[in-house]
Amino acid sequence: MLRLLIGKELRELRRTTNVAWLLAGLTLLVGLALYNGYTYYTTRGAFLRQSQQTTYEQFISQGDKNPHLGAHFGFYAYKPTADLALLDNGVEDYTGNSFYLEPHKRGEVKFREVSDATALRSFGFLNVGYFAQFLLPLFIFLLTHNLFAKEWENGTIKLVLSSRVSAGQLVTGKLLAAGVVVGAVVALLALGPLALLAWHLGLGGLAPLLPAYACYVAGLLFYAALLTGLGGAVSLLARSSALALVVLAGFWLLGVFLVPRLAGEVARRTHPATTAVAFDDQTFRDMQYGVGREGTKDERRAALADSMLARYHVRRLEDLPVFFIPVTIEAAEESDGRVMDRAYAAIERTEARQNRLVQASALLSPFLAFRELSLHLTATDLDTHRDFAARAEAHRRRVGQVVDAFYQQHTVAGNAFWRTVPQFAYVAPGLGWRLRHAAGPLALLLCWGLAAGGLLALASRRLRG
Q1: pTM of the model as a whole
Q2: Concatenated DSSP letters of 376-434
């Protein structure tokens, strides 16, 4: 009986011209999303790799210079394009991709692609992630809004239930039929990027990405299933196709557009960020005058000189077996580094509070919950960006230590030395790290799944009544 119900519903969907045109339009959009995602993934990745190599080669071939001056020549650390950016580019365009490695100055991640984009980019970048988060829910709601409501409107619901079909079989059959159509779209979203990645990377390059990719597909399937159940429940309860469509469309507009923007504004006002002027003023004062009992910069330099004289048992700085200037440079780098670490830690705490508030708003929007899960699984989220910035800063300090150690014994550095300065390479954290940071969005998505299932059970009970 269940098979007959599914077949009947699929035939009705196939005969519906609107659904056929909708599927055709969606197929074109998915194709465009795959093209955009693949182009972004390949061209941006190649550009960043080439830029990384070019700037490093310029640094190691700068010729004979004072080591400290040569270190100021600097080079860039580029954040590579995420392995699954073909699926979802996340916040990559807004957070920047390059970090300048130079002494005395903690770098900032710069060169945001969105600043060079046209105004059309404000509508979003159509890729698989954008399609899944914003367009797939709308398609599911358009498909399911009259799944049961049309039976109420046509008066056929009692006729169907008076036959051998039970209420449970009717609900299950219709939802499974809708699930077949939704599953076809989800399969296209899942298999299309996989084929492109296999073609671009080869099977050997694809293998390390499969665990994260499988988690993404599992999340996408769960997300599509809960939306299908939610649409079916509203169709059961509304008993009117027009009312069901209004409710579902309103829920989509609320969850996709209003909730994220309202949550962002509330987070910005509740936890205001430090201005650039205030940040620069505070860090300058801390560097010059110290914090607590650290003493001023001059006092710290005098204490360092005394400790060096005592360490090498000499009375004059000129008698030290090492150059004192690079020693002071290294000490200042460590002292200033502590100041900047404290300042950036405060900024990150504010950002974390803002982010937690925005993520909590996913209680009102399953679309936002899936979006956060998608960003974490594809390593295009803010947590991964902060990890990149922290590793780039650690590498900047490591370069400074290498140069200062050489400078203590030599006043001129040539290309032979510059080639000993390590190149920067960043690899995003693994799947376990991503899932730990995605625990909140994942829990919220599961809550939405339970809520959709509960609402569907309640609506089915009313049908039996």
Answers
A1: 0.87
A2: HHTT-SHHHHHHHHHHHHHHHHHHHHHHHHHHTT-S-B-HHHHTTSPPP------HHHH
How many domains would you assign to the chain?
A: 1
What Cα–Cα distance (Å) separates residue 326 from each residue in 26, 69, 239, 292, 304? 63, 11, 79, 26, 12
Angstrom distance (rounded) from CA 66 to CA 60: 14
**DSSP per residue, 22-84:** HHHHHHHHHHHHHHHHHHHHHHHHHHHHHHHHHHHHHHHTS-SB-HHHHHHH-EEEE-PPPTT
456: buried, middle or exposed (CB in 10 Å: 19+, 13-18, 0-12)? buried
Residue 235: closest CA among 168, 144, 174: 144
Tokens representing 61 are: 């071939």
User: 167 near 464, Cβ under 8 Å?
Assistant: yes
The tens digit of pLDDT for each residue in 40-71 reads 999 988 988 898 899 999 999 999 989 888 88
Q: What is the span of the domain harbouring residue 178?
A: 2-464
pLDDT at 160: 63
Name the residue with tokens 């105004």.
Answer: 119
Going from the C-alpha of 3 to that of each of 6, 169, 172, 243, the distances in angstroms are: 5, 10, 10, 29
- Which run of H or E residues covers position 10? helix 2-15
Side-chain half-sphere exposure of 175, counting CA atoms within 13 A: 24
Kindly tell me the sign of the dihedral angle through the C-alpha atoms of 165, 169, 175, 180: negative
Pairing of strands 75-78, 98-101: antiparallel
Joined together, the tokens standing for residue 389 give 């910035």
Taking the C-alpha atoms of residue 235 and residue 246, their distance in angstroms, rounded to an integer, is 11
Kindly calculate the radius of gyration of the chain based on its CA atoms and give it in whole angstroms: 29
Q: Report the candidate in 1, 5, 7, 464 with the shortest Cα–Cα distance to residue 236.
A: 464
